[in-house]
Write a structure and sequence with these properties.
315 residues, alpha/beta, Arc Repressor Mutant, subunit A, D-Maltodextrin-Binding Protein, domain 2, 3 domains, 5-stranded mixed sheet, 12 strands, elongated
């Protein structure tokens, strides 16, 4: 066996593994601009990487059809193989002979609602600041793209309610929450609200999940077959107080959000006049993370923080 043959085998047929990363980004985004932004490199550098990948594989891989970037037949086959390779390669590149999570330097991505980000991820980050200060958390909302990235292994964790759990998931109960009604302080119902008043009042709801967008509360209304007058459907809880103060509107929110709104002197919070089933938020790890020691350590920390939330007092 000649030295040249040995060298070729040692260099994986001269394949630069960074080209796999470039192909993965291009296949997901179908855009040099967006893929380059994700990789934090210039468009010209990414175009150069694509040119080298084409030369290595002997195929165009991706080409422009009008304004759209589409894969060749070979590129489509390569996309599936790259998708399977990219996560193990990234995990391999992060491997260190290190068991102490306090020394871990890594960013993890979590799909979560703004509610979960406010009441849980904020607590998680405070805990990590003490036990793993170089671990950072990136939160992304529930979108079709985010879910696709989760299934591909590009997003590490998902936190969602029971109705968002898919059959293939292996969820862990993270924390529970109950509900409170928020009203304007000058709303007559703030003194006493009956069940009839509750269902007759104009309601402000949130809709930000996939499919029909309904949250736990809205799904409960549908199950009870109790139509209500919805005056506003919001994509986030953050702006909700602006739709309550000075109006006759009623909103039903998670009890753990009450402290975030309690500083507003124009709002009052009362117990719902009807029993609303408690919400359970679940933690799902990407299935490819089961062999990722660092991700599993973080999962255990996340569950520990979730157990700590259980001790908080609800209305």
């Amino acid at each position: 066996m000649t030295i040249n043959v040995i060298n070729r085998r040692m260099h994986l047929e001269n394949l630069d593994l960074n080209l796999i990363v470039a192909i993965d980004a291009l296949m997901r985004h179908r855009s040099v601009t967006d893929a380059a932004a994700e990789m934090c490199i210039s468009q010209s550098a990414l175009s150069s990487a694509l040119k080298r990948a084409r030369a290595h594989f002997g195929d165009e891989i991706l080409f422009y059809n009008g304004q759209n970037m589409v894969p060749t037949a070979f590129g489509s086959a390569l996309e599936a193989e790259v998708r399977e390779l990219i996560v193990p390669l990234r995990m391999l590149s992060r491997r260190r002979a290190q068991e102490d999570i306090s020394l871990l330097n890594r960013r993890f991505t979590i799909i979560a609602s703004d509610y979960v980000a406010a009441v849980y991820v904020s607590e998680l980050c405070r805990h990590l600041a003490r036990v793993a200060p170089d671990v950072s958390i990136s939160v992304v909302p529930f979108t079709e793209d985010a879910m696709q990235r989760f299934h591909r292994g590009a997003i590490d964790f998902l936190i969602g309610p029971t109705f968002a759990m898919e059959e293939s998931f292996e969820p862990h109960d993270l924390f529970r929450d109950t509900f409170a009604c928020v009203l304007s302080r000058d709303n007559p119902l703030a003194e006493r609200m009956t069940e009839e008043d509750f269902f007759a009042a104009p309601q402000v709801v949130t809709e930000f999940f996939l499919d029909d967008g309904r949250s736990h509360f809205e799904r409960w209304l549908v199950e009870r077959n109790r139509p209500v007058k919805i005056v506003a459907s919001l994509p986030s809880f953050v702006v909700l107080p602006h739709y309550i103060a000075g109006t006759e509107n009623v909103a039903t929110i998670h009890n753990r959000l009450v402290p975030h709104f309690a500083g507003n002197p124009n709002l009052v919070f009362v117990k719902p006049p009807v029993p609303i089933p408690p919400l359970i938020e679940h933690l799902v790890s990407n299935r490819r993370n089961r062999h990722d020691t660092d991700a599993m350590r973080l999962r255990d920390i996340m569950l520990e923080v979730g157990r700590g939330l259980v001790t908080q007092t609800s209305m």
